[in-house]
Inverse folding.
């Protein structure tokens, strides 16, 4: 469903992504594993239109989308849940979720009713969000904001969701909840590209993985195989 070919991207005069090629098959969960600063977030932005690649191509569902603005990339079904959550603090939980569905809601009329089925689906996945649906997003805990960020991107009904560092800054018990949600999405057939520095968690939930160092893919393969590779265990899993 998604293919990146020899992507180069970065900021200023430096390339943070240096000739990366990856493939994400429909219905699979693929992990991008690497330390902080390896280039994972830059790659996610280049795939989703927030950063224009300097070289290479991005193919989604057989069509080239390289250089399209992020709004157009999202409309074709490739949606990003960004690093750092980026919720709209002054808005309520429900308002944040509705913003995720905005492109397909009616301009006039009962837009909450039009999105009610999706809201129910998100609240079933994250019951804490339903409890806090009228609460300002900025007053939520870090874990609750991460749940909200994931819920917001799912409201767009993406065909492929890119989850960028979903465990960043979260307590271990909350990380478990987030990865339980990712497992549920995978079981339900969602196509996922997961960018994550915690290799054990990423490999446990994914089908395939790419290990990235200094903007390059240094290893790739089935997650089970990489997780059982002594060299990978020593270098990345501890």
């Amino acid at each position: 469903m998604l293919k990146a070919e020899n992507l180069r991207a970065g900021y200023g005069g430096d390339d943070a992504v240096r000739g990366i090629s990856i493939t994400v098959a429909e219905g699979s969960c693929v992990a991008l594993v690497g330390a902080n600063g390896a280039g994972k977030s830059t790659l996610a932005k280049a795939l989703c239109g927030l950063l224009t690649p300097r070289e290479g191509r991005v193919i989604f569902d057989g069509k080239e989308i390289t250089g399209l603005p992020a709004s157009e990339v999202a409309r074709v079904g490739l949606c990003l849940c960004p690093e750092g959550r980026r919720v709209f603090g002054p808005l309520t939980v429900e308002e944040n979720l509705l913003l995720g569905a905005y492109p397909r809601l009616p301009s006039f009329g009962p837009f909450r009713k039009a999105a009610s089925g999706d809201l129910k689906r998100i609240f079933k996945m994250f019951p804490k969000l339903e409890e806090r649906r009228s609460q300002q997003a900025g007053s939520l805990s870090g874990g609750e904001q991460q749940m909200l960020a994931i819920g917001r991107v799912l409201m767009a009904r993406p065909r492929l969701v890119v989850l960028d560092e979903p465990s960043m800054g979260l307590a271990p018990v909350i990380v478990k909840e987030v990865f339980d949600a990712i497992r549920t999405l995978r079981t339900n057939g969602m196509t996922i590209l997961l960018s994550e520095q915690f290799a054990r968690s990423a490999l446990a939930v994914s089908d395939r993985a790419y290990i990235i160092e200094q903007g390059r893919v240094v290893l790739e393969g089935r997650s089970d195989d990489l997780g059982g590779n002594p060299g990978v265990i020593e270098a990345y899993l501890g």
About this structure: The chain has a mean pLDDT of 90.
